[in-house]
Design a protein that fits this description.
This protein has helices at 2-10, 17-33, 44-51, 56-69, 100-103, and strands spanning 73-77, 82-84, 87-89, 94-98, 127-128, 131-132. It is of the alpha+beta class. The strands form three sheets. Strands 1-4 form a two-stranded antiparallel ribbon. The protein has a two-stranded antiparallel ribbon with strand order 2-3. Helix 1 (2-10) crosses helix 4. The longest helix is centred in the first third of the chain and has 17 residues, at 17-33. The radius of gyration is 20 Å and the shape is elongated. The chain starts with a helix and ends in a 25-residue tail after the last strand.
């Protein structure tokens, strides 16, 4: 993600400057809250832990990078007959979900081919067909409990 974030940011007006400004400002605030502390690799994790909610643009840029460059999918085995989206699946068949399609859906992400590092700054829920789209940037899945077909389709264990 870091590599692609830099590549995309350098192609934007202002390049990495907005991210530098945010990180520098938040670092200065953190140092002011921790008088006498020297910013080192040993306290970097504490800085991130304390400051993650203030790194709004950086967080948005990471989500946008995941959205714009990831291409992942899941393959699941159907455990019993089920109808999903108008299609009938039988036990033993395999279903492939291409999560990239959500990332390129213009109904969810206006102008999806454009990289916008501030796309997620406002924290507005993403809506499609009058329903909230949850986990829209989980490019690599959410683990066992977040399987796309966990309730109707497959044996995810």
């Amino acid at each position: 993600v870091g590599y692609w974030l830099i590549v995309h940011a350098l192609q934007q007006q202002g390049g990495l400057a907005p991210l530098h400004e945010e990180v520098d400002r938040v670092r200065e605030e953190w140092l002011a809250d921790h008088p006498g502390t020297i910013f080192t690799s040993q306290n970097f994790h504490q800085f991130i832990s304390d400051s993650s909610s203030k790194l709004i643009l950086l967080t948005s840029a990471i989500h946008e990078t995941l959205r714009s460059v990831s291409s992942s999918y899941s393959i699941r085995r159907v455990t019993g007959p089920v109808t999903l989206g108008g299609y009938q699946f039988n036990a033993g068949e395999k279903v492939v979900t291409a999560t990239r399609m959500v990332h390129l859906d213009s109904d969810i992400h206006p102008d999806p081919m454009k990289f916008r590092m501030d796309r997620y700054v406002d924290h507005k829920p993403l809506i499609k067909n009058n329903k909230m789209v949850r986990n829209h940037t989980m490019a690599f899945g959410g683990g066992l409990s977040m399987c796309e077909g966990r309730y109707v389709l497959c044996d995810c264990q």
